[in-house]
Q: What sequence folds into this?
């Protein structure tokens, strides 16, 4: 069976759906093909237990609430509703009940005054003043990073977005370029040490920053910490009904514009034609044998999956791609409980709305990362918990709750040769106990547990080696280096009509929709007559030189 469209999108994750929506809105006939029976990839929600809706991947949406994608596609019209995570962050008191600062939790709210009051009570007035200034300085800088994330990562565009961050502001002189470079290229730990004195505060902010993947001791991680400055304007959010509410809305938007999603019949290979010096995409063949002809394919899957789909037709830029996938990323527990976590000395309103950052010292993060580097399970796992059923009753029946626990730096390949299927329950129990240390009684509240090891993340969601970011998020794999310098432009040199999107590409993992939008914009730009003429002239010029 053969059908024809103007663009095929491979992968029904959120970036693939964003790309498809933009193309369909521009009038193209679009089909999205997905191997999974569930829409949304790592932004999806399923009924894990009767009446209980559980996310399969992401839960808290951060970047997309700043990227403009939701507003551009008018996703609220198609059923998307976010519950604000406010307070967006909570770090428990190290000694609950102590009358001094160590008995006070840290509560990060959208309200900057309330946040600074919490910091003053737990860490002192000096750090509270420093945090207020930190938000003032890094708010505009992080907003510039948001703009850079939403654009192609060419040098000219990066300069255009980031150069203004040093401009004079509020009566202050221009910030020297060397100071800005030091801040952006330095480590998150160094940035925190320059600004703050309290280790508790630095640990909470470092644990937030580390959600991108690298430890905050690595160069280039300062901006990952500084993203918190934006959360005092728009906090993270969780879609009503689960993370999949986003991709369901995207699919509804796509259908309204005439596009189509086919589940359970993913791409098996790319169709390619043309002479050796002018190879171009002709469509895809699916696992069922269906051929979909199209002059454009947007591969919104792992870049290594795209390489496999191209097979012998992969041009050198794609065939030689070998980005750092790493050795796993984290362990995820989805717990069905009969009670919410209860943190001594903190109210539910303070602790349960956002990210529960269960770390009081950066040494804990360093040890966990060191164990990961050695290929070992963490001796002292550091949890991040989320309990969105506290604010969204659609997730579980009355009297029940869904608690997600994220433990970072769990290796895919264990140094002692252990099988993840054999050690999963032990690792899960250890991570549950780590939460129970801060919220006594939590372990007893757990009724059912779904464990997502690095191996099971690969099996269920196609996340290679369990890396939820596809490719490591270190400085050498960001911007114009992601996934490789040759492929960083979202086009595939040597195979016209093939475009890349997804977490493998700029700006990386997380829920943003940026790469899907950027790929769609390139497709539409390349369809303009002037662009087609330039491409043809370039092809003939290269042929003549041979």
A:
């Amino acid at each position: 069976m053969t059908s024809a469209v103007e663009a095929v999108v491979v992968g029904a994750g959120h970036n693939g759906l964003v790309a498809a929506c933009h193309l369909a809105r521009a009038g193209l006939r679009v089909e999205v093909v997905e191997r999974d029976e569930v829409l949304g990839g790592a932004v999806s929600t399923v009924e894990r237990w009767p009446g209980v809706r559980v996310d399969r991947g992401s839960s808290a949406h951060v970047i997309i609430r700043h990227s403009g994608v939701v507003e551009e596609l008018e996703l609220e019209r198609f059923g998307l509703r976010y519950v604000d995570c406010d307070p967006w962050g909570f770090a428990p008191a190290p000694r609950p009940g102590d009358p001094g600062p160590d008995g006070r939790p840290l509560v990060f709210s959208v309200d900057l005054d309330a946040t600074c009051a919490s910091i003053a009570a737990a860490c002192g007035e000096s750090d509270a003043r420093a945090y207020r200034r930190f938000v003032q300085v890094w708010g505009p800088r992080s907003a510039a990073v948001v703009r850079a994330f939403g654009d192609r990562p060419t040098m000219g565009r990066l300069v255009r977005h980031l150069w203004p961050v040093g401009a004079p502001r509020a009566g202050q002189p221009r910030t020297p370029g060397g100071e800005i470079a030091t801040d952006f290229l330095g480590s998150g730990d160094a940035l925190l040490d320059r600004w703050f004195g309290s280790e508790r505060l630095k640990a909470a902010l470092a644990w937030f920053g580390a959600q991108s993947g690298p430890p905050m001791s690595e160069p280039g991680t300062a901006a990952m910490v500084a993203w918190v400055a934006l959360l005092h304007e728009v906090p993270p959010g969780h879609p009503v009904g689960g993370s999949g509410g986003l991709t369901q809305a995207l699919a509804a938007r796509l259908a309204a514009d005439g596009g189509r999603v086919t589940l359970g019949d993913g791409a098996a290979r790319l169709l390619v034609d043309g002479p050796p010096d002018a190879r171009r995409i002709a469509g895809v063949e699916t696992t069922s044998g269906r051929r979909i002809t199209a002059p454009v394919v947007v591969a919104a899957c792992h870049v290594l999956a795209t390489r496999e789909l191209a097979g012998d037709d992969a041009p050198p830029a794609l065939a030689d791609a070998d980005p750092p996938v790493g050795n796993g990323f984290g362990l995820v527990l989805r717990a069905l409980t009969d009670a919410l976590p209860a943190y001594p000395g903190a109210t539910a309103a303070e602790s349960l709305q956002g990210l529960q950052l269960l770390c009081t010292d950066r040494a804990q993060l360093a040890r966990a990362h060191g164990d990961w580097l050695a290929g070992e399970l963490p001796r002292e796992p550091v949890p991040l918990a989320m309990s969105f059923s506290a604010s969204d009753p659609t997730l579980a029946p009355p009297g029940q709750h869904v608690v997600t626990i994220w433990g970072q730096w769990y290796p895919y390949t264990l140094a002692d040769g252990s099988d993840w299927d054999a050690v999963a329950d032990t690792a899960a129990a250890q991570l549950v106990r780590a939460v129970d240390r801060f919220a006594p009684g939590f372990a007893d509240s757990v009724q059912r547990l779904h464990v997502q090891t690095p191996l099971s993340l690969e099996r269920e969601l196609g996340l290679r080696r369990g890396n939820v970011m596809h490719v490591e998020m270190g400085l050498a794999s960001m911007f114009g280096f992601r996934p490789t310098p040759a492929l960083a432009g979202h086009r595939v040199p040597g195979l016209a009509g093939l475009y890349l999107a997804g977490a493998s590409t700029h700006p990386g993992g997380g829920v943003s929709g940026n790469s899907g939008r950027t790929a769609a914009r390139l497709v539409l730009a390349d369809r303009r007559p002037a662009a087609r003429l330039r491409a043809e002239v370039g092809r003939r010029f290269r042929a003549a030189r041979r």
